[in-house]
Amino acid sequence: MNFLKIGRILGKVMILESVLMLVPLCVGLIYHESPKHILAFAVPIILLALFGGAMQIPKPMQNTLYQKEGFALTAMVWIVMTLFGAMPFVINGEIPNYIDACFEIMSGFTTTGASVITDILVLSHSSLFWRSFSHWIGGMGILVFVLIFIPESNEGSSMHLLRAESPGPQVGKIVSKMTVTTRILYLIYLGLTVLEIVFLMMDEPIPGYESEQLFFSFLTAFGSAGTGGFGFIPGSMELFHPFSQYVIAVFLILFGCNFSLYYLILIGKIKAIFRSEEFKSYILLVVAAVGFVFLGLFRQLEAFPQTYTTEEAFRHSLFQVASLMTTTGFSTTDFHAWPMLSVTVLVVAMFIGGMAGSTAGGIKLSRIIIALKGSYINIRKLINPRYVPKAKFEEKTLEEKTINDVHAFITLYFFILVLVTFLLAFDPINGEMITVVSDAGTYTVKHGFFSNFSASLACISNIGPGFEAIGPYASYANYSIFSKILLSFTMLLGRLEILPVLILFSPRTWKKV
């Protein structure tokens, strides 16, 4: 292991986090927050700068990072970011329990949106900004930003880091140089974020929050861009006007697309987008999912016409499909109370996720397509052993290694999902009745298997809200410390797509060869 090189990059990330924390610190100053809230960010900023600077002093003998080291470093970076990123919540007293604070900020960086906060109104502007800003930081990837400053003379080290952090079965450059690739990706990411803020500012302010329109527009855009989903007012997006809800839904779908497609638009290759197999499947699935969810709600309208108007039913259907398929987790209504058909479609969407190369979580649509084609090839081989596979994906022949890697990932995904659900069954909260206050009214729900299963699914797919006791109007606060630690690592496994975390904690990683 090249410990000095790992330490040097880790130090750069710590310095970067200290710089990023200056932004919520400035927010606290703008809103004239108390010295305690200012110190909440000043203290970790100083610590990060000192530790990060000290780690730059030793000079590594070589700059090469091999794949094993790159994957382990990636997981290490996210854990360190979380440990320091949780400190402001503890220092200002808004989340006094450090494990709860780590859960909250891990949920932020991994763009999950699961929260332990039961009363969002107690958080200061600086804390609200830091939570949502963490979505934006983690959405495109922490190391993707750092790669801009890492020289490419280290024999592919940058590519190992990109593959460890970027979602999808196949990761590559969109131009010849890695630094240029990362700059293009971040410019596209930043541009879409700014564009959403502009559109949100065109709408009327939320009643009762007139002075907060610009602030809320930033928080919403951060959550949409990172497909995170932290709420910052009661009811998530429920109080937003219909225009803003439509804007958010459209941008969620856009952020669920592969960012390489936007580069094709910039260079004028628009026709190439419509040749993308994954993109066409993605749009088709979104349309189909919205249709089925709306059908479920429309049937409910016939029996209970006072529930929603037809336009409201369509808007909620579009919003919740966009939110859950892109694994964002924003909500405009309590979808837990929806008909079974609508809920089933949303659960399936939670599994699938967005496109590879997007900020969305989940299994990824590209893996679903490759897995289905791989299974078809295996069936054909059983029928005719002399059959020669000719399956293609995105106009490229699928290699057997790619198909095997996808099947291995899906197997690990479901194994972890089942294991985490099983371990959550030991939590003392199971069997208790939880009171939920939502737009559908106040009701009690039993914390049982579906609560634990949806919590596991919501964390490994980086979605946030689940169903029953951890639905869109509930929180994860009632889980035990052990369960919160378990779910925090589940979020990390989901965001880094399992392998980097497993490699970091594998004893073989640290053995001398």
Compute the CA-based radius of gyration: 22 Å
| Topology, number of strands | 4
Spatial order of strands in the largest sheet: 1-2
Distance between the termini: 9 Å
Helix content: 55-70%
- Beta-sheet strand percentage? under 5%
Query: From the helix content, strand content and strand pairing, which structural class follows?
Result: mainly alpha
Low-confidence stretches: none
Biggest β-sheet strands, sense, barrel: 2 strands, antiparallel
Q: What is the average of the pLDDT values?
A: 88
Element-level helix/strand string: HHHHHHHHHHHHHHHHHHEEHEEHHH
Indicate the overall shape. globular
Q: Total number of helical segments?
A: 22
Which secondary structure elements does this structure contain, and how are they paired or packed?
Blueprint (H helix, E strand, L loop, with lengths): L2 H18 L1 H9 L4 H20 L12 H19 L1 H5 L6 H12 L15 H16 L1 H5 L10 H9 L12 H24 L11 H13 L16 H14 L3 H8 L3 H4 L3 H27 L6 H16 L14 H13 L12 H19 L8 E2 L2 E2 L2 H25 L8 E6 L2 E6 L2 H12 L20 H15 L3 H6 L9
Antiparallel strand pairs: 1-2, 3-4
Describe this structure in words.
The strands form two sheets. The chain has a two-stranded antiparallel ribbon. A two-stranded antiparallel sheet has the order 3-4. Helices cover 60% and strands 3% of the residues. It is mostly helical and 513 residues long. The chain is built from 22 helices and four strands. Strand 1 (392-393) and strand 2 form a beta hairpin. It has helices at 3-20, 22-30, 35-54, 67-85, 87-91, 98-109, 125-140, 142-146, 157-165, 178-201, 213-225, 242-255, 259-266, 270-273, 277-303, 310-325, 340-352, 365-383, 400-424, 449-460, 481-495, 499-504, and strands at residues 392-393, 396-397, 433-438, 441-446. 48% of the residues are buried. The chain has a domain at 1-166. The N and C termini lie close together (9 Å). The model has no long low-confidence stretch (mean pLDDT 88).
